[in-house]
Design a protein that fits this description.
By secondary structure, this protein is α+β, with helices and mostly antiparallel strands. It has 2 domains: 175 residues, 2-Layer Sandwich (Beta-Lactamase), CATH 3.30.450; 88 residues. Helices cover 67% and strands 11% of the residues. The chain is built from 7 helices and 6 strands, in the order ααβββαβαββααα. Strands 3-2-1-6-5-4 form a 6-stranded antiparallel β-sheet, sandwiched between helices. Strand 5 and strand 6 form a beta hairpin.
């Protein structure tokens, strides 16, 4: 398979980055969800505290005529509550401990303690003790899952005259988290594309030198010892390329030396052949003369034998 190393590098790098992104994204989403919930709770608690302080002033008579609770301000209380509705930006319930009545915002009918689930009544009781309490037990009355904060209305004399209840729909909180999740996913997608580009470049950085070395090795195996890799890197791949170039240089030197020795051998054989040609020719002529009986005299035959031996 061609580009197998490149494919593996892309796979390993992208897979590692994807796994890392998923882990970081999961941690971020979980942390952000908790943080977002804490921020909403903090903001809801701050609004409840400001409203409780404002109602304490109103009920104590600092904001107008003297009185105590909703009894003393039945004429202006409705307008004041509508004003609080406008600035609260959420559902507001006012609990009067004297009347044991719960006044709701946005023109909703009032409730009594008997209308509350047991857990919700416990939340109001804790707020009456001076605690800021959060709960998700009012969802059945609100008709949707919600988070609620209860803050006691403490008058100037230290008496807790009632409780402010603020409700925030959980879907509003989750929508913020979901929007953040969408942004996170888009960011992860963009990061994945960028990582693929970077992985491609890194893969090329590793595979291109290997391709050059392969080409050089094929030329060397074909007898072209002048081939070089052309790779100059200060790493292990560069060291391998240098070793391959040095090997090619040594093979080139050895080939030149082998060619020189071959030429010397041929010259030696040619010289030896030339030097042996004349005496061999003389000996052959003498043998032909003896064999064919051209020379038959004993003294001449002996002379021929002496010449061939010499």
């Amino acid at each position: 398979m061609r580009n197998k190393i490149r494919f593996r590098l892309l796979l390993y790098f992208s897979g590692s980055l994807l796994a890392f992104s998923l882990i970081i994204g999961l941690i971020f989403f979980t942390t952000f969800s908790r943080y977002n919930m804490d921020v909403y709770k903090s903001e809801l608690g701050n609004r409840a505290e400001r409203m409780a302080q404002s109602l304490a002033l109103f009920w104590s008579g600092d904001a107008g005529q003297p009185g105590h609770g909703m009894k003393g301000h039945s004429s202006g209380y409705g307008a004041y509550l509508r004003f609080l509705d406008d600035i609260a930006m959420t559902d507001v319930w006012i609990v009067d401990s004297n009347l044991r009545q719960i006044t709701r915002s946005h023109g909703q009918p009032s409730l009594t303690y008997q209308d509350l689930p047991p857990e919700a009544e416990d939340v109001i009781a804790q707020a009456m003790d001076g605690k800021t309490t959060f709960s998700e037990n009012f969802g059945s009355l609100l008709g949707t899952p919600s988070i609620s904060v209860a803050k006691g209305i403490t008058l100037a004399n230290g008496e807790v005259a009632g409780v402010v209840l603020l409700h925030e729909k959980l879907e509003n909180i989750r929508s913020t988290t979901q929007k953040s999740l969408v942004i996170l996913l888009l960011s992860m997608g963009a990061a994945a594309l960028i990582s693929l580009f970077i992985a491609q470049r890194l893969a090329e950085h590793f595979t291109q030198p290997l391709g050059k070395m392969k080409t050089a090795a094929l030329k060397i195996s074909g007898g072209d010892y002048t081939a070089t890799t052309g790779v100059t890197q200060e790493d292990e791949i560069g060291a391998l390329a240098v070793a391959l170039d040095e090997m090619a240089g040594k093979l080139h030197t050895a080939a030149q030396e082998s060619s020189r020795l071959e030429n010397l051998r041929r010259e030696l054989v040619a010289n030896i052949s030339h030097e042996l040609r004349t005496p061999v020719t003389v000996i052959r002529g003498s043998l032909e003369a003896l064999c064919e009986g051209v020379v038959s005299a004993p003294d001449m035959v002996e002379e021929y034998h002496r010449q061939m031996f010499a």
